[in-house]
Amino acid sequence: MWEDLTAVNGEVRHSLDSYxxxxxxxxxxxxxxxxxxxxxxxxxxxxxxxxxxWHTRNEAVFNEGKVNCxxxxxxxxxxxxxWMNISSRAV
Length: 91
Prior knowledge:
Keywords: Membrane, Transmembrane, Transmembrane helix. The protein is mostly helical. Helices cover 67% and strands 0% of the residues.
């Protein structure tokens, strides 16, 4: 899933294996720079990823929900836009 989300930034994709924990990823995430609007999306991407995985896990454990990786990926991509309250009028 990380490979799909970081496809635009090869530097990040290749360094993901060097992080031994989620904390290490969060601490080092800001070193990867992006530009303009992408910067804001890039900043919140790891938080969206962990939030969606945590929510999906809770649904599966507590409500007998199903895990669908395609849906997780789509939701992770949608959350940064939602959190930043971006609309077509704002762009």
